[in-house]
Specification:
78% of the residues lie in helices and 0% in strands. The chain is mainly α and 87 residues long. It has one domain.
Length: 87
């Protein structure tokens, strides 16, 4: 019974973890003529990248905070476990 409760708590904590995926940097052609021809598309790609990298940084900050909280909770649970099995 206790192992089932621990397993459930583990799954609940793991499910809360967020996957942060970094955006791909925009492609800029080496050919100046091609860069000029596609400048609107390339400019838009840069703007999207800047928006997405800001979201990525926020995601990393949120995940870091979540992981620290989880680590505190696991550390406290470990302390309770050690007290429980102490002779």
């Amino acid at each position: 019974m206790l192992s089932a409760a621990i397993f459930s708590a583990f799954l609940a904590g793991s499910a809360a973890a967020e996957t942060c995926i970094a955006p791909q940097p925009p492609f800029v052609p080496g050919d100046p003529e091609a860069a000029r021809e596609y400048s609107d598309i390339i400019r838009n790609d840069f703007e999207l990248y800047i928006r997405d990298i800001e979201q990525y940084f926020r995601c990393l900050d949120d995940e870091r905070a979540r992981a620290f909280q989880e680590a505190r909770e696991v550390s406290a649970a470990y302390g309770r476990f050690l007290e429980m099995i102490a002779p």
